Amino acid sequence: MTKMAGESNCPRPDAHPLHMSKVAVGCASVDTLERRQAQRIADGAVPVVTRFMPKRADELVGGSLYWIVKHRIAARQAILGFDVRPQDRRTIIRLSPALVRVAAVPRRAHQGWRYLAAGDCPPDLGGDARGDDLPATLMAELSALFLL
Q1: FRET label pair with 83: which of 71, 131, 135, 142, CA 20 to 30 Å apart?
Q2: What average pLDDT does this structure show over 34-48?
């Protein structure tokens, strides 16, 4: 069972009404998450295995999975679709390889994933985000400290 998203690999957070959040277990920074995701790319997507298929999976395709790093939402990846792993019936969330950093928002850790409404999503960094007029090195340091 495969569900596909539209043309865009990385939709704007407000382009779809439903998203999800998940803790990036074992990742001390967004850079660590980015390296981990780059190593896992298969068939143009990053697979993330979870125990159950979300009941609202159809609404999530085209939305984003927001990653929680060190108790802050810090990045997102577009949800391309869902598959079921035949050997154990676990769900595979297929994500876009593009990891988009977002303005850090405090979030308590949780197990599994949680739905996230579009109105609760932080804005992407870059474009119209705060700090665009800062030097790149300073912006990188502030972002690493989750101050942007």
Answers
A1: 71
A2: 95
Q: What residues contact residue 73 under an 8 Å CB cut-off, 6+ apart? A: 21, 66, 67, 102, 104, 105, 107, 122
Task: Evaluate whether 17 touches 59 at the Cβ level (below 8 Å).
Answer: yes
Per the CB < 8 A criterion, the answer to whether 27 and 72 are in contact is no
Rounded Cα gap, residues 42 and 96, in angstroms:
10
Give the start-to-end residue ranges of the domains of the chain. 13-144
Q: Which of 98, 97, 82 is nearest to 41 (CA)?
A: 97
**Residue of 19, 5, 4, 7 whose CA lies nearest to 122:** 19
pTM of the model: 0.76
